[in-house]
Write a structure and sequence with these properties.
Elements: H1 2-11, H2 21-32, H3 38-62, H4 64-69, H5 77-80, H6 85-106, H7 108-127, H8 134-154, H9 159-180, H10 184-190, H11 195-199, H12 201-226, H13 230-248, H14 258-282
Helix pairs in contact: 2-3, 2-8, 2-14, 3-6, 3-7, 6-7, 7-8, 8-9, 9-12, 9-14, 12-13, 13-14
């Protein structure tokens, strides 16, 4: 059982929850104008854990055949038999139930929106089969984290909710565009519709840059709208610098450092933005 759990957590890259979870906390801090209370923090954390586990379990289950055919992903847990499809299906059902229960414990609007969130969390894994806009659909889906964090505190939508949602949409879309560049040849052979496979690596990297410029602009608008302090603006400057560094690591002819750009830098960005919002609100 411990071995299966270890394989499962590795398969869904549980540690990458750090990408979206801080944005739920950002939204909570802003909506509450400070500390939102342990009850909200605990149930939002559980909702986010359930949401991401649902998304990744379905993703691994839906992509198991293409993963097996792709040399880059052929050693993943389902293609190699380390996990069985029923493991992922069971995890998806359990995590979906956790998401719904957490929404119920938060407030009526969270509960009402939970099925719609689940629809995107399940559905985005299939979008690459028919549209090259899948990167932005993934970003929009991750952006639900920010909206959910705000609604968990306030029980309503508000203009900052949409700024946060937009920022997370273009941020995630940008680094997913970068990540997809390594599968261009396979996507073409398999008939998958990624942006890099449709338009090429150079245009994809350019689109990623545009997305990340828009991310910084959105966070600038958020800081101005919410009246955040100098620590927030310092964090935004650091994040902008990290975006520049991230894009300096890769080029259309050299993707050898893509993993560093994708995993390390974006994890730092999420944590720095959370610290910046917390500092900007408190000071």
């Amino acid at each position: 059982m411990r071995r299966a759990l270890r394989h499962f957590l590795d398969a869904i890259k549980f540690e990458h929850t750090v990408f979206a979870l801080p944005f739920a906390y950002v939204a909570m801090v802003l909506a509450a104008d400070g500390w939102p209370g342990w009850r909200v923090v605990v149930w939002v954390t559980l909702a986010m854990t359930g949401a991401r586990t649902l998304a990744m379990s379905v993703n691994r289950l839906a992509d198991r055949l293409t993963d097996a055919a792709n040399p880059r992903t052929a050693q993943r847990h389902l293609p190699t038999g380390l996990l069985a499809p029923w493991h992922m299906l069971l995890a998806a059902v359990a995590s979906g139930a956790l998401l719904a229960f957490s929404g119920w414990m938060l407030n009526p609007l969270c509960l009402k929106l939970a099925p719609w969130a689940a629809l995107f969390l399940i559905g985005y894994s299939y979008t690459k089969r028919f549209t090259w806009t899948s990167h932005w659909i993934l970003g929009f889906t991750d952006g639900i984290a920010a909206a959910g964090g705000w609604i968990a505190v306030s029980g309503v939508f508000a203009p900052p909710t949409f700024l946060l949602w937009f920022a997370l949409t273009v941020w995630i879309a940008g680094f997913d565009l970068i990540y997809a560049c390594q599968d261009v040849d396979f996507d073409k052979r398999a008939g998958l519709h990624s942006f890099p496979a449709r338009f090429g690596i150079a245009p994809a990297l350019h689109a990623a840059k545009v997305c990340h410029v828009l991310t910084v602009v959105a966070f600038g608008a958020l800081g101005w709208t919410m009246g955040l302090g100098w620590l927030y603006w310092a964090g935004v400057v650091v994040v902008a610098g990290l975006f520049v560094y991230e894009h300096s690591l890769i080029s259309p002819t050299d993707l050898s450092r893509l993993d560093v750009a994708f995993f390390n830098v974006n994890g730092y960005i999420a944590l720095i933005l959370f610290a910046a919002v917390l500092g900007g609100r408190l000071f």
